[in-house]
Amino acid sequence: MRFLALLLGVKAASILLLSSLTGTGAVNSSGRWWGIVNVASSANLLTNSKSVQLVLDPSLALLSRRQRRLIRQNPGILHAIVAGLHSAIKECKWQFRNRRWNCPTTHSPTVFGKIVNRGCRETAFVFAITSAGVTHAVARSCSEGAIESCTCDYRRRGPGGPDWHWGGCSDNVDFGKLFSREFVDSSERGRDLRYLINLHNNEAGRMTVSSEMQKECKCHGMSGSCTVRTCWMRLPSFRTVGDFLKDRFDGASRVVYANKGSNRASHHADPRHLEPENPAHKPPSVRDLVYFEKSPNFCSFNGRTGTQGTSGRTCNSSSPALDGCELLCCGRGYRTRTEKVTERCHCTFHWCCHVSCLNCTSTQILHQCL
């Protein structure tokens, strides 16, 4: 076991060394912990006698001392963190699937690439969605009994209304927020505007999960009647969280530090000191996304900024929206090709228990940016 852990640790160190040599590593520690999503697997998750996941040896090199301590203090939580990151990456790619920046990821420790070193809208979304992912996954894992240090939120008890009462197992979003704040924010270093903005967007992700909690009820009564209901609080779907944060992305606020507009914060740096660059705009709320620099156009490959460009991306020739060939291809034009696609069709269920399908072939017309 020790020999296996040593080999896995060497593998993680090699990944970190490679990233530093190729220039893919972040210039600061922001988001470095995201790299555990590329190292985690069931093969290197060590368990205790109760089969609760405790330590992920290779990924610990990507975490700060404080983050490692939090994982040791909360057996089982590492799996939730990794699951939350997977959800965040999947949701980010879905929300931006038709945009010039389509949330590209890499297998390096800096999962989202060099965008993490910028201060644009896309950076804001990445920080918010990953913080929300950890909050959501940890809160759900608590109610599922997968983490030793937390359970369901049982604080809501007793009558809630004339025909319903609190009961059941509410998702523990407060523990999820608290842990995410301790774990995610601990990777931030510095006292400048970037530091404050990252903290603000981390909190915006957490608050979005919390504010979208919904009451869920179950009916009790004779013959299926609903004379009495038992209710609890349930997490929103992560798609709901992603949709909300995408709306906030579209309306994100460009901000400066309130100390005479300086980009340098005082010793008592506080995200509440952020104010709109345009004095006519209202201050950002705790759930708004904020940024401090304009986004690149993402049209062409640029190794310095880490943009991949849109060449080869599939576009919609009939759409005037952002997924249309005119906008997505940045005016460069596009090529058209046809391809045959074979899919299962006309499926029939046979008792019991077999499904038979035919193979149907169709021709699709695809448009790709030059």
From TrEMBL:
Major localisation: secreted
Q: Does the keyword Transmembrane helix apply?
A: no
- Bias (Basic and acidic residues): 267-280
Q: Choose one Gene Ontology CC annotation of this protein and give it.
A: extracellular space
Q: Region (Disordered): which ranges?
A: 261-282
The record ties this protein, via InterPro entries, to: Wnt (IPR005817), Wnt1 (IPR009139), Wnt_C (IPR043158), Wnt_CS (IPR018161)
Q: According to the lineage, what is the superkingdom?
A: Eukaryota
Gene3D superfamilies listed in its UniProt record: 3.30.2460.20
For this UniProt entry, which residues form the secretion signal?
1-26
Oxidoreductase among the record's keywords? no
Q: Which GO terms describe its molecular function?
A: cytokine activity; frizzled binding
Per the similarity annotation, which family is this? Belongs to the Wnt family.
Write out the function statement from the record: Ligand for members of the frizzled family of seven transmembrane receptors.
Q: What UniProt keywords apply to this chain's record, in alphabetical order?
A: Developmental protein, Disulfide bond, Extracellular matrix, Lipoprotein, Secreted, Signal, Wnt signaling pathway
Task: Please name the GO terms of the biological process aspect recorded for this protein, alphabetically.
Answer: brain segmentation; canonical Wnt signaling pathway; cell fate commitment; cerebellum morphogenesis; fourth ventricle development; midbrain-hindbrain boundary development; neuron differentiation
Compartments, as annotated in UniProt: Secreted, Extracellular space, Extracellular matrix
Designated name of the protein:
Protein Wnt
